[in-house]
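Subject: mismatched residue count in predicted assembly?

I count 586 residues in my input, but I want to confirm that the predicted structure covers every chain. Input:
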Amino acid sequence: MTNKMNSPLWFITPYVMLFFTFIIIPVVIAILLSFTYFNTIETPEIIGLRNYIELITRDEVFMQYVLPNTIKFAFIVGPVGYILSFLLAWMLAQIPHKARTVFAIILYSPSMTAGIAMAVVWTVIFSGNSTGYLNALLMNWGLVQEPIQFLQSPDYLMTIMMIVSLWGSMGVGFLAMLAGILNIDQSLYEAAYVDGMKNRWQEIFYITIPSMKPQMLFGAVMSVVGTFTVGAIGVQLSGANPTPQYAGQLMVNHIEDFGFIRYLMGYASAVSVVLLVMIYSISKVTFNLLGEKNR
Amino acid sequence: MSKFSGTKINPKKFHRSQTKFFVILIPLAIFVGLPIVFIINHAFKPTNELYAWPPRFFVRRPTIDNFRNLVDLASESGIPFSRYLFNSILVTVVGVFLSILITSLAAYGLSKLKFKGKKLLFEINTLALMFVPIAVTIPRYLTMANIGLIDTYFGLILPLIAIPVGMFLVKQFIDQTPNEVIESAKIDGASEMQIFLKIIMPIIAPAVATVGILSFQLIWNDVVGSSLYVDSESLKTLPFYFSTIAAVAGNPVAGQGMMAAASFIMFVPNIVLFIFLQSKVMNTMAHSGIK
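Triage response: the counts match. Full output below for your records.
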């Protein structure tokens, strides 16, 4: 049966069909829905740009909390996680194989823990009563008298979200960078030293990074996407949507809030479209930045 | 010539100069690894140790009570635990298999076959690397409702098996395989599909393993499918059941032990699979670059 299957259609049709059904079409529908009022029961009613206008001018929660939170979260967790991935990969590349494997598994393991697991571990650690591990430690050392409500307090929630996200940020991009460093042609370094390269920093900037630029770009995209995907973490940690005083409210939570709690699907779609556009533009900017630096 | 440190990449054995890396890496690995060790210990703690003050990190007298409670609670709610487990395993096994098959087929097509729109298709796929499913959950639901996937096993499987990242990685991997092998097989009269099955599949085993791991993580951990795309309880999967415990245990006393046991069950298959296949993953990642 397989001896006549030559057409490319045999190969690409299944993937393309699924890819379009579950990725492309939903994106298109999201764009269309964002121009409508849709409460899931009545047929969508076209209202033009009103959702977007409302989002920008009327939605105080969005402007005051959600957008700044998202930007702050993305701009700290993204770059820090990315630089950390590179540095760790670089260090790992310089230790023997067996130790490297063990470290790589440990560092990658958090990115495998599902949302529930993350929420369980970290809520227990940061729990607001004296059985919370961090509170118990602080009280034992006499640093605080009363347990701190880490997860319910707007002062701490964001910081904790960032720590937890960074903890889990050594994902596929990190593995790609590690592989990238290990596969650099060693004679490049030799040649560079003959040509007068002086130190490790020059080594990193003139040889290591340029030689693994493709992996660096892949890592960057994964890092941007990863940052936005872990977005639901504030709700998992605090156990409520919206998060206490919107302290950990990110765009993903805002979408869920309007889409699945208030059933304003058109509005939620508009937020989704803004989110997709944001991710896309940040990825593009990252691309150009990294591309230029290494040219 | 100053000291040449390039050769220190990928060293064969330990050298004193590596000490500084270990000094940084060991504490960091401990920080990263502790929560994982914590999940494992917490899952086996008896109630009095779960709420001991000051809290203890390591378990003293391990018990499997938490797992037993988890199973009991499920049957109380009407659906036996085994049903969730069966659903999870079924969905994951079928999903991973289909994902590997569909992804490698398409990757071969995009890498080695000639057809119209090939470049465009790969461009769109690369663009889709930036896709965050959570952003379009609602339209996805509408699409699925329209083609009648709601409340079926397909609803749990199909949305998760076309993974742009996986497809990207396999395609980059196949790009590295020499065309001569394919050419000579063609001269011997093999069809493209035969070449794919008999020659390419064995060569791309590492990339296949990587897609397997990625899709396993995605499907095994997926909660969205069970909470949105199926309504009947008997079709829902483990992570969904576990997430309901998390909701019940809004006050930490109610189900901390059970939740720890649940996290343990979710986490262990992931890590075991990764440990077995990590060398294959690294091999694939070497070709992961975006050019």
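Chain B has one domain: 69-287. Marking this ticket as 'not a bug'.
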